Amino acid sequence: MPQPPKRPRKPTPAAVKTAPSKGELHPRNRHQGRYDFPALIEASPELGRFVITNPYGKPSIDFADPAAVKVFNRALLAQYYGIKHWDIPDGYLCPPIPGRADYLHNLADLLATDNDGQIPRGAKVRALDIGVGANCIYPLIGRCEYGWQFLGTDIASEALASARAIVAANPQLAGGVELRQQANAEHIFLGLLQAQEYVDLSLCNPPFHSSAAEATSGSTRKWRNLGKLDPKRKLPVLNFGGQAAELWCPGGEAAFLKRMASESAQVAEQVLWFSSLVSKGSNVELLQGWLARAGAAEVRILGMSQGQKQSRLVAWTFKNGEERSAWRQIHWR
C-alpha cells in the first residue's frame, strides 16, 4: 500500500546572532569597571558595614551573605537609577543588576532596528515583564533608562505586593508601572492581555531548574567552584535567594521555553517582539525549532556576558518587516 507523502518540515526562521567579547557589558551599561564604593556608601550609608577587602586587596562585599547582596543592590539602585526606596522579603530573588540592565539595553537596540536605528523612548513604548518578581528590577531600570511603560506580571501575590510597595515608594515611577497577577499558573501569556491591548516587547528570565533539589544542588556547585564552600560556615541554601516559581518549574527551562513559544503564537497580534533569557546553550536550538513550528517570522540570538557568566537572549517576532513598519506608524507616532 503506497505511503502518503511526508509533509515538508517547516524551515527554522533565520536567526541573527551577535555576541559581545567575553566579560564585556553593553556599551550603554552604567556598571562598567570597578565600583566606586565611597560613592555607593554616600548614596546608601548602610552599605558601609558590609564592605570587605577581597583577596586582591580591593573593596567588595561578601556575595555569600544575602543581607549584604540586598543592601548592595539597594545602593546600586540609589546611585545609578535614583531609586531611593527598595526592599524585598527575605528569601526572594535578589538579582545581579548589571546583567538585568544589559538585557534592557539589548532590547532597546532590537527596537531601534525597526525605527531607522533610533531607540524609541518614552511612554509610547510598552514592555511586558513576565515574572516581575518581588524585586521589580526590569521596570525600575527600564523606566530610568528609556522612560518606557511597563506591565509587570507574576503568579505570586506576595511578589506582586512587594513590587507594588517599591513602585508606591518611588514617586518617579507613578503611572509608569502597572502590576497584574497571572491567575492561571499553567499559562504565561494566555488570559493575561486584555482585548485590544498591545505591547511592543516582552521579556522574561525563566526558571531554569526542574526541581527544588536541582536548584539547591546548582547553588552548592557554584559555591564550590568559587572556592567558598566552607564546612565550618553556614551558607545560604540558594545564592541570591529565590522562591520556587523564580528558580524552578516542572521540566525546567526547556519546558518553560516550549510553552512560551506555543503561547506567544496565540497572542502574536498583540505583541511586536517576544524575548527571553536562555541559561542553557543547548536550549537555544530547541527554542528555534519550537518557534519554527509556531510560525515565527524572525529570530534574533544575542550573546550576553557578565564577568565569567555567559548567557543568551533570544528574541522573536511573528511580523515581517513590512508589518513591523506598520506597527511603528500606528503605535509609535
What attributes does this structure have?
single chain; 333 residues; alpha/beta; Rossmann fold; 8-stranded mixed sheet; two-stranded antiparallel sheet; 10 helices; rRNA processing; Ribosomal RNA large subunit methyltransferase F; methyltransferase
List the helices and strands and how they pair.
Layout: E1 15-18, H1 37-43, E2 51-53, E3 59-61, H2 66-81, H3 97-112, E4 126-130, H4 137-146, E5 149-154, H5 157-169, E6 177-181, E7 199-204, H6 212-225, H7 244-247, H8 252-266, E8 271-278, H9 282-294, E9 298-306, E10 309-317, H10 321-331
Parallel strand pairs: 1-9, 4-5, 4-7, 5-6, 7-8
Antiparallel strand pairs: 2-3, 8-10, 9-10
Overall description:
This protein has 333 residues and is α/β, with parallel strands linked by helices. The protein has a single domain (15-32, 93-331), classed as 3-Layer(aba) Sandwich (Rossmann fold), CATH 3.40.50. The protein has helices at residues 37-43, 66-81, 97-112, 137-146, 157-169, 212-225, 244-247, 252-266, 282-294, 321-331; strands at residues 15-18, 51-53, 59-61, 126-130, 149-154, 177-181, 199-204, 271-278, 298-306, 309-317. It has an 8-stranded mixed sheet, sandwiched between helices. The protein has a two-stranded antiparallel sheet with strand order 2-3. Helix 3 (97-112) crosses helix 4 (137-146). Mean pLDDT is 85; it is low at 4-12 and 229-240.
